[in-house]
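User: Second chain of the day. Same drill as before.
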Amino acid sequence: MILFGLREHHTDVRTEMTAGFTTFLAMLYIIPVNASIMSASGMSYDALVTATAVMTIIASVLGGLWANTPIAMSVGMGLNAYFSFGLVKGMGIPWQTALGIVFVSGILYILISMTPLRRWMIATIPMDIKRAVSAGIGAFIAFIGMEQLKLIVHSPATLVTLGDLKDPRLLLGLFGLALAIFLTFKKIRGAFILTIVLTALLAWVSGVEKMPEHFLSMPASMAPVAFELDIPSALTLTLAPVILIFLITDLFDTLGTLTGVGMRADLFHGRNSVPLQRTIEADAAATVLSGLAGVTSTTAFIESAAGVEEGGRTGLTAVVTGLFFILPLFWLPFFQAIPSNAVYPILIVIGVMMFEELQHIDYSDAAVKYSTFFIVLGMPLTYSITDGLLLGALAYVFVRLIQGRFRQIDIAMGVLAAVALLVFFVL
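Assistant: Same format as last time:
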């Protein structure tokens, strides 16, 4: 196809379609997982299934057509958990206001993606801190996964303790966790959705959960969540750090994925690469639409690497992936019948994958070491990505001052530390 320049990229329609279907299988898990996580905030599960599929279609097709890269997009893991468990349940923010935060962060993301400020943000936050943030979010979502499985439960004596390992539902979750680890270790395609399906089948066959009477239906309406965002309530000084965290996390997630997948497929050349710039712009635009549709920020999915391995090199791969997500719109009864303990093991495994970033951090720098410690432990223990990052920024600046290396304090870290002082001790 001339639009995608298949010949120039040494590929063909058949290869791109195969790659798109492969990416679809690798990403399919996001629909039941995101719907389960976000519905914990009180939002309609049925509407979230539709909204997640619709935004995956829009974001992937938009990115494929605008950037012409094989990078598929969907609702990002990490921020969806923070949305439900950190903001709505933790801070008591209505989910409508939380959607307003997503929308505002998307508007800022668009502005930044089209100006030199994007390169400034990327350059002024140390790479090791970015890695610590990724690992911290991994620890946060893994902690939520263990909590929802009841593997970790509340204890009045020790805050948390080990759950009842004789509970059939917990045993079901542990089976799902073991299966997910095994399948990802063996590099089985579609490991996550396969884990969810097999664990759900075990739950139905064993009688732990009821098997659905039918598996297909017409798509559920998005009306209960679409256009329900409350923007004015999100525009307060108190929530400014939360908006900043959504912006930073979305930008870093996308850049990390683009770096990894781009290197593998030789997609981008230099920081001023047009495909790179356009992929970021597509992600930013999709994030704005996500807030309107009723889900959290979209991001480039690392599962796109599965399609790249199949030979996908152009935007046709992403377009095909997006169009395949029309199918899950009709699978609502199946998604409704999936037990939560078949879903939450996926959070733990994804958390472990994100935790791998810690191996690349330079711990010989004391400021980085202490900042990493407070970020990675702070996020799960405070139940807040925002608080964890701000604690890490404070630790970073404090150690730099002790070292007498004031001039080596990165501007962005200094700004985050100032925000932390304001949030923790003034507001």
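Residues 2-131+143-342 form one domain.

User: Great, on to the next one.
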